[in-house]
Amino acid sequence: MLNADLHCHSTVSDGTLTPEALAERAKANGVELWALTDHDEIGGQQRALDAARTQGMKYLTGTEISVTFAGQTVHIVGLGFDHHNTALTEGLRRTRGGRGERAQEMSDGLAKVGIHGAYEGALKYVGNPELISRTHFARFLVEAGVCKDTPEVFRKYLTEGKPGFVPHRWARLQDAVQWISDASGIAVIAHPARYGFTPNEEYALFTEFKAHGGRGVEVVTGSHSTQEAARYAETALEFGLAASRGSDFHSPDESHTDLGALPWLPGQLTPVWELLADRIQ
Ligand code: AMP
Ligand code: MN
Ligand code: MN
Ligand code: MN
């Protein structure tokens, strides 16, 4: 089996390592095929590709697009696309567009429960001014001593119904899948076990994703248990989707799953990189 890690984040979105530091860490951990998948952003792709070359690792371009489906946020990973594609670049720019205002509103919500200066505090952690995310707020709230770690911040402040949560409209599923496909890449449903969908909603997600041209699903990820991986291996077979593998690594201090340190894909599945053989650089 190939040690492929096709999901992680750099300082270009909400990770704490630069693309170069990630490439070095991936190589040290035995990764053979790597993709950097920053949220709604491909500005780090050339750096990641160059760093992968320096390290002697194969590379697939990547991104993780925020999508709103059935009133919830779903993440669609794109792999192996042409990172100079104009429609993809423009679609991602629009998707990032509302983040600044959303962050101001998050800060207002937190101020109402006595946490002041969260916007400015979060900004200190931001590496890309167009990509302020909940993760940056979480880091500030830990620094400020409000919570002991980032999962606690999400639980108490940044998820639906909590003071710092602001509902947001992201890209449409069909648009995200089309931007990726039209740029010669493959769209993949990220960490499916993380969504709070009913069985009917989940069935609709997979059905519509497939109908729009989506071709893969993450089966082995840092956020799936062994049972969840087995479950989505079956879903992949049921929907005729290829399987992906990725740690979703964000930070040495925060992420439980390190780059490349993942179980293998279950047998019988088609790995996404087999569909992307001619896109590997
Ligand atoms: P945003 O795109 O601003 O909504 O932020 C989403 C990011 O927050 C995800 O990509 C994760 O990195 C992080 N995140 C979401 N939920 C949690 C959680 N429960 N614990 C820790 N990090 C989380
Ligand atoms: Mn993230
Ligand atoms: Mn995600
Ligand atoms: Mn991710």
Summarize the structure.
With 281 residues, the chain is α/β, with parallel strands linked by helices. The protein is built from 11 helices and 8 strands.
Detailed description of the structure:
The chain is α/β, with parallel strands linked by helices and 281 residues long. It has 11 helices and 8 strands. A 5-stranded mixed β-sheet has the order 4-5-6-7-8. Strands 1-2-3 form a 3-stranded parallel β-sheet, covered by helices on one side. Helix 1 packs parallel to helix 2 (45-55) and helix 6 crosses helix 7 (150-158). The model has no long low-confidence stretch (mean pLDDT 98). One manganese (II) ion binds next to loops.
Looking at this protein, list some descriptive labels:
281 residues, alpha/beta, 5-stranded mixed beta sheet, 3-stranded parallel beta sheet, 11 helices, 8 strands, 40% helix, binds adenosine monophosphate, binds manganese (II) ion
